[in-house]
Amino acid sequence: xxxxxxxxxxxxxxxxxxxxxxxxxxxxxxxxxxxxxxxxxxxxxxxxxxxxxxxxxxxxxxxxxxxxxxxxxxxxxxxxxxxxxxxxxxxxxxxxxxxxxxxxxxxxxxxxxxxxxxxxxxxxxxxxxxxxxxxxxxxxxxxxxxxxxxxxxxxxxxxxxxxxxxxxxxxxxxxxxxxxxxxxxxxxxxxxxxxxxxxxxxxxxxxxxxxxxxxxxxxxxxxxxxxxxxxxxxxxxxxxxxxxxxxxxxxxxxxxxxxxxxxxxxxxxxxxxxxxxxxxxxxxxxxxxxxxxxxxxxxxxxxxxxxxxxxxxxxxxxxxxxxxxxxxxxxxxxxxxxxxxxxxxxxxxxxxxxxxxxxxxxxxxxxxxxxxxxxxxxxxxxxxxxxxxxxxxxxxxxxxxxxxxxxxxxxxxxxxxxxxxxxxxxxxxxxxxxxxxxxxxxxxxxxxxxxxxxxxxxxxxxxxxxxxxxxxx
Length: 473
Hints:
Blueprint: E1 2-6, E2 9-14, E3 17-22, H1 29-37, H2 47-66, H3 72-86, H4 105-122, H5 135-139, H6 145-182, E4 187-192, E5 195-201, H7 202-224, E6 229-230, H8 247-259, E7 264-265, H9 269-274, H10 277-303, E8 314-315, H11 333-356, H12 367-391, E9 397-398, H13 400-409, H14 418-421, H15 423-436, H16 440-446, H17 452-458, H18 461-464
Parallel strand pairs: 6-7
Antiparallel strand pairs: 1-2, 2-3, 4-5, 8-9
Helix pairs in contact: 1-4, 2-3, 2-6, 2-8, 3-4, 6-7, 6-12, 7-10, 10-11, 10-12, 11-12
C-alpha cells in the first residue's frame, strides 16, 4: 500500500510498518529496508545476475498471463518493463548489497518492486499503487525466492558462459594454435624440475596449451549441463504450492526460447531447491581451468625472463612501463594479472563449496554468495583470457637464436645416447662434460663410444624434438 505526502516522496507500508520513499525510486519498502540492513561491501548485484532475474520474471509474466493467473494487461506491462530494463533503463535501481538476507529474498524483492512500479507507470498509475500491480501478488505470482534464485543462478551462469567465457577460450585456443604454427620449427631446451631436459619445439609448447584449454572448455560444457535443469515452479518448499498445474512445464519452455538454450524441468523440485551441487560442479570446472591458466601464465613469465639474466626465449609484448624507479623496464603484467584473477577464482570456489554444504532442510540460505561468486568467476575468467589473448599471446615473438643455443648446450641431450651407449656410459659422458666444459659430441668421440656419422644422426635436434606419432600396429 502507498500514500503520497508530496511530489517528492511516497509512503509505502508493509507488515512491519510505514516508510517514506523518494518518488523517483522504482524500488520499494522491502528494498529500502535491505539497504539499511546490509551496508556491507558496497558491491551491487552483477548485471548478468539482474538480467537472469528479469528474464525469469518475463517468462513467468507471460505464462501466468496465458493461464489467466494474472490479468493480461498486467502481464503485458510486466513484460514491457522487463524489456525496458534489459535494454538498459533503470539499471541503477538494483541496489541491494551482495551480502544480504539469506536465500536472496532482498534482491528478489528489489526486482519485484522495480518491475511492479514500472508496470504501474506503463498502465498510467503512480508508483506504489500496489493494489493495482503488486510486487508479490502479480510480479511474483506462483513464485518464491526459494525457486527463483536458484533458477537465476542457473540462467545467469549460462548467460555468462555463452557471452563471456566460451568466446574468450575459443579466441585463446585459436591464437595459441596460430603461434604453434609460427614457432613449429624453433627448437628449444625442454626443462623438468627447472633443470635442463631433452629438446622440444617451441611451437609444441603453444599447441599443448591450446589442447589444455580445449579440454577445459569441454569439461565446462559438460558441467554446465546441470544448469539447464530448472526447479522453477517449486514455489516455497518444492511442492509447487500456489502454482497452476501447467505452469511448471510451460515456464521452462518460454525460458528456453528467451535465452535460446534447451532447458528442462527438474524431475524433483525439492531436490533442485535443496542441492547446490550443480553450482559446485561448474565452479570446480572453473577452478580446474584457473589452475592450468596459472601454470601457463607462469610459463610465459619464465620463458620471457631477463632480458639479460633470465631465459628470454620469447618476448611478451610490452604494454606499459614496468617500474616507478628503473627506467626501460617492462614486466609481464598480463600474465601476472592472469594469475591473480585465477587465485581469486580458486578462492571463490572454496567459498561456494562451503556455502553449498550449509543448507538445512528444504533450503540453502547461502545462495546470494553462491550467485555472486559463480557468475563473477565466469566473467572475470572470460575477461582475463580475452585480455591475455589480445594484449599478450597475439604479440609474442620468439628469440630463435637463444632457444637453439640453450638446446645445443643442454646436458640432457645425452638422453638420446642411452639406447646406443647405455645409461651408465651416458651418465659418465654428461659428468665429464659438466666438469671439463667439453661438448658431449667431443667426449663420445674421444672415448670411441660411437662413430661420428652415427653420433650426428642421434644428436639431430630436429629429429629429437619432434613428437612421435601414435601408432597402433
